[in-house]
Amino acid sequence: MTLPLELQGIFTNKQKSYKIVLILALLTEMQVTGLNVVSLLNLKQRFLSLLQERESNGLIVDQPPEKAGTSWNNMTVSNVQSVFSTPISALSSILDQNKETIGFKEELYENWSDDVLSELYSHAQTELDNYYNQQRLESFSIKEALSEILFTYLTAKRETFAGHRLGNLVRQQIPTEIRKLPFIHPELKIIGSVGQGNWATIPWIAIMDKRITETTRIGEYLVYLFAEDMRSVYLTFLQGVTIPIETKGKPAAYQYFKQKVQEIRSVLPLEGMVKDDAIYLTSGGLGQDYQVSTVAYYRYDLEHLPDDEQLILDLNNAVTNYNEYVNKVLNQNEEPEQMISFNYTISHLYAGQGILKYLHDHGLNAISLDELISNQGSVLLSGDDVKHPKERVRHLGRALQDLGLLSINENQFSLTDLGQEYANHFNENKWVLSDTQIKLVRNQLNNTEEQTPLTRSINKAIEICKELGSFTLDQFAPKFIDALGMLQTWGEVTQKQRSIFMLNWLEILKFVSKSGQQYTYTDWEETPLVDSLTVIERVATIKNFIASKGFMYPDHWIENFFLSLKAKPFVILAGVSGTGKTKLVKLFGEAVGATASNGQFSLIPVRPDWSDPSDLLGYKDLSGVFRPGKLTEVLVEASKPSNQHKPYFICLDEMNLARVEHYFSDLLSVLETQEWDNHRILTTPLIHRDSLQNESDKQVYGNLHLPDNVYIVGTVNMDETTHPFSKKVLDRANTIEFNYIDLGQYPTGEGMPASEGAAVPPNSLLRSEYLQLVDVYRDYKQLTEETTELLVKINGILEQIHSHVGFRIRDAVCFYMIYNDRFALLSKEAAFDMQLLQKILPRIQGSNSSVKKALLQLMQVAQDLSLPITEYMEDASKLYLSPETLVASKYPQSARKIAFMLRRLEEDGFTSYWLS
Q: What is the pTM of this model?
């Protein structure tokens, strides 16, 4: 198919690869999440990861700008912004970006067929390959160097040996370029030879670890060997033959080589390499010695030399295996069961999920490697775009085998008993480990009878995390690499890459949690993701508990309070003093397990002299030590991994004694940065690590954010001692009014004490499930559109008095309505009545006729009647003096409030929602 016109030329003008990488990252993120609008933060991470992956594998990649960093692997999401913003700007004709999300322009995306995205991905991948191929033409090429040797060596042998350019290529140029590859560490010695004084029969280029050998005459090393007829070249894992043959004699040396070959093959994966003796260099002499002593090899024929990318990947794999062997040699005095290794280039544990799911879905019989490869679209995370699927499936398979989930025998893959149980518990999204799968892997790590080098390395990493407690990558990496014994073997890039990979694994297995650049060890315990009761049962339990404490609230108040918290974790309770505002927060919290005694309920009295966020969050004293505020102390406690499933309530009592916009400004801003990250809702930091001086403060408070298990409720009175709210505050909260109180209510003594109620619910009961309308629009399209149509009508009224609302309020109202529809707590009319009362009316105040007209038009909406507006502009007393008419309204709560506001306007010349 042909791409739409707007996509055809997007890569025409490019100085770097960034535009192409951005599109590939965006399409991959859309595929993984199933969303057409994705998190900007997650996209930055994927963009950076694509560049880091190429750099880690030694492939050609654009270097980062000098100001951004020296290499991609040394960069983080926070400092990639300067690079990331350039391609976004260049692609602004097809992309829409806001503060938190990014996606293709909606008007374009809706007109594309289902095949457009896959075609665009293929187009971008082709463009990227072409771009890098062009870069290779301008740089050194291993393929061209090997090809030149194969094509010209036989001719060169008839020419003068001394000073020949081919000798310089083998001895100097190729070793120099190989040393530049990021996986080549300082202990590796690289030399090449075409002979000494005369042309050698078999020229070679060797890579030796100086700690076990510095000569090709003995020991183990890697070497490119060129066949005598120059029709092929082999990258081999080889044993030096000269000294063993001289000292042992050829028969005994050959026997030694064969035994050593079997020994090495038994302890190394050597995946992708051929493990036999069918290596043909020459018919006799030294070439035959090489054949006997070869452990494993890649063969490249002159007519079919792979591209540079594959040659570098093969060399990287060979070096990885060689490093593992050297590590075993250097640690050979240790007991075998103590040896650990982590030689996997698997960035996330979930990358193996596709193999396990495919095996589970296709019965109990073993599945061949070829079948898995032919179905790579479902087996591999990146699907059909993986260029070398055989190596990838083998690599993933070996990791799954070491975890005890998979058995591999002669390229036949099958699930173990543990693997079968594991595969019975897939999530709907197979690429996300379920809690049961996590638990099974964690149990396997504790199985001391079936430990492998991989499980021992994971357990060692867990020990290090537990010892560090809270730490950064730079603190973890040296300890982990030292534990592996690879400090001197792996280069800096490889050390960092493998450390990141291990921490990714541990995060998925819930041994650590990550906030910004900070990791924290956690004692994870499996907790229910949903309440044991239905929501309607849980709300009834909460109401019973509150009644048992002798407190009575009007019908549907508890349901409304629940829905308000669910829609947004910030609620304002307004009303006259003594109506039970603070008590509602306290009792509701106790009903879900949050009490003052366990630290999950905190009452923070607001002082009139609070003027900035330091009064709430904390400040640095003259010595630079951070003095946390009460709110910060609660956030630290709530953020601990062991507490993340528990709800925490913060009641800001008398919230408007000081100006909310001043002391609460940071919280108001951070509330709007919520986004999903690994099944948690994260925000930008409230306290930035760089703003702290003391290292211990950085560990505790650095990059502290607002966790998704914290609910802030403010109580307010409106009188001469308090301050009004700005629209910035009102936009972010549901305002529940406590002015209409029935004093003729008496405690019944009925209800159920907390000790006799159901088990304490998890935080998922209250936590928001939607952050953007796109999260839910498809499932609740009709309700969303009905609600939005009503809001559009209301917004037309509010525009006359400059009090109209934006997308933030639209989304919040829709979420409230959708939660209510899901949980069947209120009628649709009652739910919208609450939102009209709590989200729209608090914005209205004034003294002119425009305000009165707007209120009368809103009354028409509330009563679902046509009113004589012109008549009521002169005298609206019929409306507020007829309470029975208000009760019969479609939205009675709102109608009553509008009538009250009209009365205040006519009698006092001014009106506001907040007048009592």
A: 0.49
H/E stretch holding 618: strand 618-620
The secondary structure element, H or E, covering residue 64 is none
List CB contacts of 144: < 8 A, sequence separation 6 or more. none
Sequence-separated (6 or more) residues with CB below 8 Å from residue 552: 745, 746, 747
Q: Are 851 and 798 in contact (CB under 8 A)?
A: no
- 561-619 pLDDT, tens digit each: 999 999 999 999 988 777 788 999 999 999 999 998 888 999 999 998 888 888 899 98
Instruction: Give the model's confidence band at 422: pLDDT under 50 very low, under 70 low, under 90 confident, else very high.
Output: very high
With tokens 């309607």, the residue in question is 536
CA 806, 808, 811: angle at the middle one, nearest 5?
Answer: 110
Check: CB of residue 855 under 8 Å from CB of residue 914: no
H or E element, residue 851: helix 849-863
CB distance 432 to 366 below 8 Å: no
CA distance 862 to 288: 95
Task: State the DSSP string of 636-664.
Answer: HHHHSGGGTTS-EEEEEETGGGS-HHHHT
Place of tokens 């028409």: 860
Nearest residue to 318 (alpha-carbon basis) of 176, 230, 188? 188
Instruction: Find tokens 């993701």 and name the residue.
Output: 529
Tokens of 662: 């001043």
- Section 20-40 average pLDDT: 86
Cβ-count burial 116-144 (b if 16+ within 10 Å, e if not): bbebbbebbbebbeebbeeebeeeebbbe
Q: Is the pLDDT of residue 548 over 60?
A: yes
Mean pLDDT of 472-478: 91
Q: Is 704 helix (H, G, I), strand (E, B) or coil?
A: strand
Cβ–Cβ under 8 Å, residues 383 and 377: yes
Strands 601-605 and 845-846: unpaired
What CA–CA distances, in Å, run from 395 to 132, 289, 446, 799?
25, 31, 24, 62
Beta bridge partners of 682: 675
Spatial separation of the C-alpha atoms in residues 885 and 896, rounded to whole Å: 10
Is the separation of the CB atoms in 225 and 194 below 8 Å? Answer: no
CA distance 141 to 178: 10
The tokens for 567 are 């829609």
Gyration radius of the chain over CA positions: 34
* 3-class state of residue 626 by DSSP: strand
* Token output for 856: 């009368």
**Phi, psi (degrees; rounded to nearest 5) at 389:** -65, -30
- Report d(CA 882, CA 868) in Å as an integer: 16
Query: How much of the chain exceeds pLDDT 70, in percent?
Result: 91
E strand or H helix at 674, and its extent?
none
Distance CA 509, CA 403 (A): 13
Residue 436: both structure tokens together: 């049961």
Tens-place pLDDT, residues 630-641 = 999 999 888 877
Query: What are the distances in angstroms from CA 386 to CA 125, 127, 432, 504?
Result: 11, 16, 20, 21
pLDDT at 681 over 60: yes
Return d(Cα 247, Cα 462) in angstroms, integer: 47
Which of 73 and 200 is assigned the larger pLDDT? 200
pLDDT over 90 percentage in the chain: 34
